[in-house]
Design goal:
Low-confidence stretches: 187-193, 282-293
Number of domains: 2
Shape: globular
Largest sheet: 6 strands, antiparallel
Radius of gyration: 22 Å
Helix content: under 10%
Number of strands: 20
Number of helices: 1
Mean pLDDT: 86
Length: 293
């Protein structure tokens, strides 16, 4: 876990500081991975590790208390597969490694919270290469994303509980699957934000299970909060904002363009987690007692 923004230095050397040689270096974000594919229940995906130290990345949109079985089997080459599962905060929750077998399995992985999980597949020793198959099976019911919709080039509207996404024609060039899962409230710091009221994990992917993070045209996100009793919590509706998760800055960035009393709207081409947040300004108010002389 990197404690702050900025430039970090990575040192690579021989473990004993004696031997020499060439090496490969692999780097991947666990909280917002790049070049990831989406894995779906009941579907077997094929991948390949072509160089030492490489790992392939998959994403899974999880519901609360999902239980998964993950299996990786080598089909060609010397690969001795290993698989690791990381929660939305980048913490490892399950793994299976083998230095001698062509197949590994996480028999029962309990996911502690809803959100987007990252699955890394590679060689257990980070040395060997080969072609593999990876499959995911749900052991619990319900399991996976709370809401799933497929939207084509003609656009449409996706409604997932308190969140609605209006997608204009031409936003997607081909049929795109959108998965939305409500997340547990987390106080993730961000510019001008102190409290996350509620948030939603968003995952979009097209044919080939390639995750996409940008639409060709702005999508309109609308969050409805008529179900929240704001007054009893001392929250003014004017202090609420919509915020999108900035994967680069690892923080929430507010972006609200419209308000209709019980809803907030924002438009952007970004496809990312979205949250209803209470701005820091509203939580910094100080009420002094009335003094009479």
């Amino acid at each position: 876990m990197l404690p702050q923004d900025g430039t970090f230095t990575v040192l690579a050397a021989d473990a004993s500081a004696v031997k020499t040689g060439s090496y490969n270096l692999y780097l991947q974000r666990l909280t917002a991975p790049t070049h990831a594919r989406v894995i779906v229940v009941g579907e077997t995906l094929v991948g390949a590790i072509s160089v030492s130290a490489e790992a392939d990345t998959f994403r899974w949109s999880a519901g609360a208390s999902d239980r998964l079985r993950v299996t990786v089997t080598t089909t060609n080459g010397a690969l001795r597969p290993g698989v690791r599962v990381f929660d939305p905060a980048g913490t490892k929750v399950c793994e299976a490694l083998s230095s001698y077998s062509a197949s590994v399995e996480i028999a029962d992985c309990l996911l502690p919270r809803s959100g987007l999980y990252t699955i890394l597949v590679g060689d257990s020793s980070a040395i060997l290469t080969g072609v593999y198959r990876v499959a995911l099976t749900c052991l619990s019911s319900p399991c996976g994303a709370a809401y799933t919709a497929v939207v084509g080039p003609e656009g449409g509207t996706v409604r997932a509980g308190e969140l609605q996404i209006d997608i204009p024609p031409g936003a997607f060039a081909e049929s795109t699957t959108i998965q939305i899962t409500p997340q547990l409230t987390t106080a993730v710091p961000g510019a001008g934000v102190q409290r996350v009221i509620r948030s939603f994990a968003l995952l979009a992917f097209r044919a080939g299970n390639t995750a996409i993070t940008t639409a060709a045209k702005p999508l309109i996100y609308t969050e409805y909060h008529a179900d929240l009793d704001l007054s009893t919590q001392g929250i003014a509706a004017s202090d609420l904002r919509l915020a999108f998760w900035d994967a680069t800055a690892q923080s929430w960035t507010t972006s609200t363009e419209g308000s209709a009393g019980v809803s907030l709207s924002a438009s952007t081409t970004t496809i990312a987690d979205i949250a209803l947040v209470l701005t820091a300004t509203s939580q910094q108010r100080v009420y002094l007692p009335l003094l009479r002389r």
